[in-house]
């Protein structure tokens, strides 16, 4: 069994980064973000990046760091949300944006990992999302053709990993991460816990180690909440 564990986030990215590359970055809102790997990409100074991610972090956190340092040329995303820097750079023309319906984005990534170059979906037909895309009719319904997404590097965050890179995720952090792990030419996973070989019941593995090239224990686990909503009173 191959030990894929690296000593630090910087070591885990060594030799993988270059200008103009495409990076997939896991996360949904602020859940499941590769918090420890993103700062190392910023520190490396690579630029002209195309980043595929559901969103681009929030003020001072996650992919926001790469926007702030002007290392990102293009975002392929589903949600801009309350990221004012993302909005500002896009509206000023400093950042290219390919906006996708969220389910379409997930399926494009899954297709990339499964080796499916294109598929058809009703989502987006008749809207700006469909502009320039082929349309086909199936059983009297029109569908637009979407293409796969793949990346030079996928950076993801998981809960646990064994030395072979078999991964488990927790709750909402199991969002885009498993699909992205399959669609990167190289996949680096940062994890909260490293466990010995043989710990996992095979039925409990969410991402098999065959999809994971490098693993590192995360050094940042803030798990921020983007919007906290509370109410008084007891919930039974």
TrEMBL record:
Q: Where is the signal peptide?
A: none
Gene3D superfamilies from the entry? Glutaconate Coenzyme A-transferase
Mind telling me what this protein is named? 3-oxoacid CoA-transferase subunit A
Q: Which organism is it from?
A: Hephaestia caeni
Q: Which domain of life is it from?
A: Bacteria
Keyword terms: Transferase
Q: Which GO terms describe its molecular function?
A: CoA-transferase activity
